[in-house]
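pasting for ref
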Amino acid sequence: MIEFRPIVFILGILLCVLAVAMAIPAVVDALVGHPDWQVFTASAGTSLFVGVSMILTARSGWTSFSLRQAFVMTNLAWLVIAVFGALPFAFSELELSVTDAFFESMSGVTTTGATIIVGLDDAPPGILLWRAILQWLGGVGIIVMAVAVLPMLQVGGMQLFRIEAFETDKVLPRAAQIAGGIIIVYVSLTALAAIVLWALGMTGFEAVAHAMTSIATGGFSTSDASIAHFDSAAIDWAMCAFMVLGSLPFVLYLRMVRGNLRAILHDSQVRWLFAILFGAIALTAGWLWLKDIMAPDLAVRYAAFNVISIMTGTGYTTAAFDAWGGFVMALMFVLMFVGGCAGSTTCGIKIFRFQVLHATAVAQMKRLLQPHGVFFPYYNKKPIPQGVAESVMGFFFLFIACYAILATGLGLFGLDFVTAVSGAASAIANVGPGLGEIVGPAGTFKTLPDGAKWLLAAGMLLGRLELFTVLVLIMPAFWRG
């Protein structure tokens, strides 16, 4: 039988943190005289009361934390934060339904960026800031989870990073110290992004909101037009840089801070990321230029921004890229699944899994050519353990299966083909916009049926928690013993 007291204790702490976060938009709304400050205050009070009650109830009587408890805690953490994070959306002047409020909150905390809110340019500042805060908290949460929890749970090949995460060149030997160092780096990058964006022409409020959602690769903006609202080449390129920074392994930033300035350059995962990005940007820019859609300089700018945004799962847009022709639409659809590096704020399949699959396939082909030879797949110049290769292949199969189920389910709710297949991809890869007129770069998810929104929210949680973490809970064997 699983002991729930340590799980309840940790959830209580998270709710208290969420309550403190809610106080920030409450203050902002109060300063501008918007009545939603009362909504945020009441939501913060409710979250704090429940959180403290949980802490007091479960603070004693347990001494350990098991593997099964880690699975349950990880799932409940994201679910509970999404539920309480929906309170301001449900009771604000936007008057969102329960479905819409939960969808927006889940999209925020999973850093998906899909939205049902129309009229962001006129939305209350507290709501805009709360959307950014949810993504920012979700971003740092997934980094810490990727470093401290997923390697322990051996989810989808993440055990490959167990030694790297906990040694960190033996400078930070304990997981708590690593998490603390990551949070400091995360806050520092966010502050840097805010300063740069403010200097480039955004207002202070816009700069802070976009700094949080770019480093978190979340994609929530303060305008319906997303980053196209600013119509600034400098802002576009700066946002490209911050989206890439958010998609790199944060453990490598710690190594750089401690003196190993070449840590990122020596990581094969990072090299693959840049190779794929540059290749996709070149193809897209070349297409836009050769088809006379844009001049060369604009083609490079718009291609770079939208390719980086979609591949990293951020979801900002500066143009309706699904109107650039079938080639670009197909390329963007494929890039939705790629994601960034393990240990970053991005989701998707992630670069290292493609590397493991590639290395395994190459080794297999060599065995076919030389049946008596001995060939091993390598990752970062180290042999890949058989268990890791099996976990990665299992993840690929499960990812495709879950995606197919999501897309089919959306079709059952009456969505057209493009909306169903791209919406499912957007949810499970935590990208944000899909393709087509309804959920594409120029659309929102507002008009979808409620059932489709709940299904998409479930897909967001599945994708954010790396599939296995969620699906293992439905196995009867998990609850026995």
